[in-house]
Amino acid sequence: MANNVENDFHMPSIKIKKFFIASLFIVNIAIIFIIWSNGSSYYISNPFVGGGIYIALGRIAGLLGEYFLLIQLVLIGRMRWLEHLFGFDKLNQIHRWTGYSILILLLSHPILLVIGNSIANGVSYFTQFADYLANKEDVLIAFIGLVILVYVVFLSVIIIRRRLRYETWYFIHLLTYLAIVLALNHQFETGDLRGGAYLYYWYILNFVIFGMILVYRFLRPLVLFIRHRFVIYNVVQESHNVWSIYITGKKIDDFKFKSGQYANINILSKGIWYSHPFSFSDGYNGKYLRFTIKNSGDFTSLISGVRPGTHVIIDGPLGLFVNSIARRNKFLFIAGGIGITPLLSMSKSLVNRGVDISLLYAIRSNQDMVFKNEIDNLSNQYANFKIHYILSTPTTGFDTGYVDEEKIKKFVPDFDTREVFLCGPSAMMEAVNKSLKNIGFSDKNIHYEKFSF
């Protein structure tokens, strides 16, 4: 791969950018507390008079909930600069916990206000709640938005989420935008934003973030499509349940990416047009893009029926799963199943530079193996690339078992001098990550990204 495509990330620059983002986040939190302390000064000064403490806490919960809701939009906004700083997996974790925080804050907001105002007005909780809904239109609409958000977060709970098909989860999460729109007017009607500088600040905060979402999530993929006219020119079956799609287009050599990265793709064909993240399974070559997709029983079961000539919208490249974040110049790649795709791409880009790579490829059986010819060709051509296949089903000519401490020590004796890149099913990565920790690896030398939803 050309050097201009695989430029290293500059660690000092990354640290400065992260510090700037953290500072911006904290400054906004401080501004929100200043807004609250001024707008709710009476209730803060008189916390035990007329339910003041409940009203004050309810107002700050609402402001913080609305702010974190905007942060949530940024986290799911597919902003390249943000993903290149933190990586998909880290942002996904923050997104999940931010969602739970939003739920707590936005539920606390009406509950605390109802309690506080019912005390102040000398009425029951139910009467106060009914009065809000009946006499304040913005509150009623915002409450509908809150119900939608609760529904989305409820379905995001791990136990429930695992029972959902990806497309169901995808469409349910689109409701988040509806919920935010419904609550928008209520934000500007809050008692703490009475006008002047505070109200203008809140307007700017909202419209800047909505503007970034519009640009990165919607306009940028459209611009890329108009520029490159991405189209599938070949579909190749790699195994009994895995297919590769080859994509070309106008000026395809100008669409550059780093090996290990991924893109969100929309195949414009019936039943599979919605967005899904897939890793590039081949390195940059200036001729085509390759994505390799396993039939997992959802919309991926339709990939085999995609016809050449079908157009594709691509949003990317994205992700921080790239060799340039490594602190060592020797690598241990561990792949599970279809997780071979980014690691094969990275291997191809590194071996011709003389980089020492050991690849452990764990699969169920030889029928599930993909790209064996490409992997073996690398092994035969480059002495600095070593491959070890590990099959969970006993098969003649292959090692049997799982990637564990014993296998790592056996096949890669100098494991403790290497940087680890890990990709595979979530359960497999958790088990391997534990094994790596047990033999002395630290988090800073282990890299992985999970596309679980």
TrEMBL record:
Gene Ontology cellular-component annotations: membrane
Entry annotated with the keyword DNA damage: no
Membrane topology per record: Multi-pass membrane protein
InterPro entries for this protein: FAD-bd_8 (IPR013112), FAD-bd_FR_type (IPR017927), Fe3_Rdtase_TM_dom (IPR013130), FNR_nucleotide-bd (IPR039261), MRET (IPR050415), OxRdtase_FAD/NAD-bd (IPR001433), Riboflavin_synthase-like_b-brl (IPR017938)
Residue ranges annotated for the FAD-binding FR-type domain, each copy included: 225-324
Requisite cofactors: FAD
Segments crossing the lipid bilayer: 19-39, 51-76, 97-119, 139-160, 169-188, 200-219
Domain of life: Bacteria
Main location: membrane
Keyword field contains Nucleotide-binding: no
Name recorded for this polypeptide: Oxidoreductase
Keywords annotated in UniProt: 2Fe-2S, FAD, Flavoprotein, Iron, Iron-sulfur, Membrane, Metal-binding, Oxidoreductase, Transmembrane, Transmembrane helix
GO terms assigned for molecular function: 2 iron, 2 sulfur cluster binding; flavin adenine dinucleotide binding; metal ion binding; oxidoreductase activity
Cellular localisation: Membrane
